[in-house]
Amino acid sequence: MRNIKVNGDRLWQSLMEMAKIGATEKGGVCRLALTDEDKAARDLYVEWCEAAGCTVRVDEMGNIFARRPGKDDSLPPICTGSHIDSQPTGGKYDGIFGVLAGLEVVRTLNDLNYETNAPIEISAWTNEEGSRFAPAMVGSGVFCGEFSLAEGLAGEDREGNTIGAELKRIGYDGDMKCAPRPLGAFFEAHIEQGPILEAEQKTIGVVQGVQGIRWYEIEVTGMDAHAGTTPMERRKDAMVGVARMVGEAHRIGEAAMPDGRTTIGYMEVSPNSTNVIPGKVFFRADIRHPDAGLLDGMENEYRAACEKIAGDLGLGLEFKRIWYSEPVIFDAACVGAVQDAADALGLANRPITSGAGHDAVYVSRIAPTAMIFIPCADGISHNETEEATPADLAAGCDVLLNAMVARANE
Amino acid sequence: MRNIKVNGDRLWQSLMEMAKIGATEKGGVCRLALTDEDKAARDLYVEWCEAAGCTVRVDEMGNIFARRPGKDDSLPPICTGSHIDSQPTGGKYDGIFGVLAGLEVVRTLNDLNYETNAPIEISAWTNEEGSRFAPAMVGSGVFCGEFSLAEGLAGEDREGNTIGAELKRIGYDGDMKCAPRPLGAFFEAHIEQGPILEAEQKTIGVVQGVQGIRWYEIEVTGMDAHAGTTPMERRKDAMVGVARMVGEAHRIGEAAMPDGRTTIGYMEVSPNSTNVIPGKVFFRADIRHPDAGLLDGMENEYRAACEKIAGDLGLGLEFKRIWYSEPVIFDAACVGAVQDAADALGLANRPITSGAGHDAVYVSRIAPTAMIFIPCADGISHNETEEATPADLAAGCDVLLNAMVARANE
């Protein structure tokens, strides 16, 4: 069976119904992990899954698995899913689209009375956003062995409530083991959260992988001094050095276009007073590239550039890499299934690399994995104004449906 | 009478005795305006002045005038002075040196039984620092007509206490009118608060004037976006623009060496998150030059540079001048009296421009004025580690004595 299509209206209705839970005045959603809003959304989702004939199980991390049996139910399931939780000022599509797209696949297969060979599973992963509890992607992380169960349950919010206690409170402390098990494949549908598809008028991004991300903490020290009484030639101005370091980061990012990215988003100036030459500036650099070797090269070049600037200006420099998320290259067969489905459906598409982390990053360690992106307005996400069109959402779901069916029947 | 000298030991003892009032653990002074510490210091100073035979009067702003009569007491007095209040973590010399140097001049003239032709006056101006009550230099400002008396008395600290109420509380709400009256001259002795004299091994800075100061508030707007999902070529990164603007400010300051100065000391990055391209950066620029015309040129060049950068990068720019303190050129005859005294005493000296504001700025509007600088260690001031040597303090006081005597006998 090829080029089957989901019911786009039903998908849209489900998204809009779900967006009422935790709805904000500005049209977004605030559904922090394991709050009453998260519970209400989980309850509604479970109700819908059961109404669609799925068997629903919850694991020790509160991850929800809804299963539609296959002809051969002993085969590893073909899976999809994403997350139900949101940022504090989140949108109506980030995460929840990937969950409800899975449900729409099941509903469509039901409409068609179509039985896949392997079973179909939808997973809703706990605390993907990491906004209430750090770290992010902890539900899929424990499932895939990145964190121990104890680590996962111990995560605390600012009031000291743990994930474990909050799962119990909302009734999602399941008894299914949270541990790797054989999955036939995992597909995650998601909004792009970037501007590329919209700008190029592509409906589908065939995600090849996730870029590597490195974070650096950089502290530059000069000497605090009076802006009026200290001549230019006697200054050790940390701000002047950091300004050059921002420029070098940008230059290195531009030299690595189109795939490389460099950003200085966080800065603290000390003492931060109009008439005091800054004696210290602390900033963080975010450097990304899908190729680990090229990322190494960017890091080395940036470190050398910062050292040269500090040396030229007589400034102290502390340059520390504080985080590395390695690049992920998705499974060629799964990526191919997404590509084939998009092509067969006649949808404008392009290969794309995910700039953000997703549950699929962890799942890719234990199962063949791929992702499907659809455009979002102006590339805006993690924002109440996040928007996607019903047509694009339906198209992404169509690709998911056909890729999963193809894989389930292999 | 030429090349007379003060008693440097007595000056040092007085400074050290005074530094006990409000002494901090790190060797500095916390003597905020009109606190109990300021009152205790004022009381001790008044006691010393009266013991030295001066007539002490207090005006409506709490400014204290101590007068030693002249042969012709109808002549306008030859004046000196500075302030008794300090920064919260201030040093032992900023301000109080100029007051106690005046007292040492009187004591030395007493030792010599020397009667000047015109009377001698020492003024201790209220709230020079502006740390407890804004604005700074308010006592001399009201005296010289910059502020009305009502404005001066209305100044509030963070608890809502006014200068007027606090003057009454500590018993320094004098009945002498706070208004301009004829002064024969005004000399203010002060530590440099900068590194030049120490670096060039000069004992005396013959202050030519005070540089003009302009402050700007500059807001650069781009577009907040995800550091991972937004390609370099689709960014509107306010940080990248501001980094270039910092570089241009520095370049313009260096081009205006040795007198020009440019500083970016204050910056706010928004949203200031490691993985968000900054959509807004707000900063303040401080641009100084002793020559008003050249300061105009620096401003015009900087504004044009910021506009070009914003234009090149597609960023929004708001560029506002928020403050201008005009350059002051001190009275040639008074500066000459300082120069002559330093030369005649054989003290290594150089012309210098004050980078900071002082009471002498306001006084220069109503009387012929000059200042005398002495070195301070590493140029550090407004800091508990502020240091000056007994020899330099005595030398500065010697110059003050000889300049005042010369002027008083003209």
Structural class of chain A: alpha/beta
Q: How would a crystallographer describe the biggest sheet of chain A?
A: 9 strands, mixed
Report the average pLDDT across residues of chain A.
96
Strand content of chain A: 15-25%
Assign the CATH class of the largest domain in chain A. Alpha Beta
CATH architecture of the largest domain in chain A: 3-Layer(aba) Sandwich
Using only C-alpha atoms, the radius of gyration of chain A works out to 24 Å
CATH topology name of the largest domain in chain A: Aminopeptidase
Helix segment tally of chain A? 12
Description:
The structure is a homodimer of 410-residue chains. Chain A is of the alpha/beta class. Chain A has two domains: 8-210 and 327-408, Aminopeptidase; 212-325, Alpha-Beta Plaits (2-Layer Sandwich). The first copy, chain A, is built from twelve helices and 15 strands. Chain A has helices at residues 8-18, 36-51, 96-111, 138-143, 149-154, 163-170, 196-199, 238-255, 292-313, 332-344, 359-363, 390-408; strands at 55-58, 64-68, 78-83, 120-125, 185-191, 204-210, 212-221, 225-226, 261-270, 276-277, 280-289, 316-325, 328-329, 349-354, 369-374. In chain A, strands 1, 2, 3, 4, 5, 6, 13, 14 and 15 form a nine-stranded mixed β-sheet that branches. The two termini of chain A are 12 Å apart. In chain A, 59% of the residues are buried. The mean pLDDT of chain A is 96. At the A-B interface, strand 8, helix 8, strand 9, strand 10 and strand 11 of A face strand 8, helix 8, strand 9, strand 10 and strand 11 of B.
